[in-house]
Amino acid sequence: MLNLPAGEPSHPLAPSLMRHATGRHRTPSRVIFLSLDMVADTMPMSDVQFVKWEPSKLMTARCMKLYKAAGTFDVVAKGDLVAIKLHVGEYGNTTHLNPVFVKEICEAVRQKGGKPFLTDSSTLYPGARHNAYDHYITAMAHGFGDCAPWIPGDGLKGEHGVIVPTKGILKEIEVAGAIAEADAMIVATHVKGHANAGAGGAIKNLGMGCTTPAGKKAQHEAICMEFRVEKCKGCGKCVEACFMHCIRLVEGRMLVDKGKCMSCGFCAAACKNDAIRQGDKDALPRALASAAYGVLSTFGKDKVSYVSFANNITQKCDCMASPGAPVHPDIGVFASDSAVSIDAAAFNIIGEQLTKMNHSDCFLQVKELRSFGYPGDLKPKVIEL
Question: What is the reported pTM?
Answer without folding.
Answer: 0.87
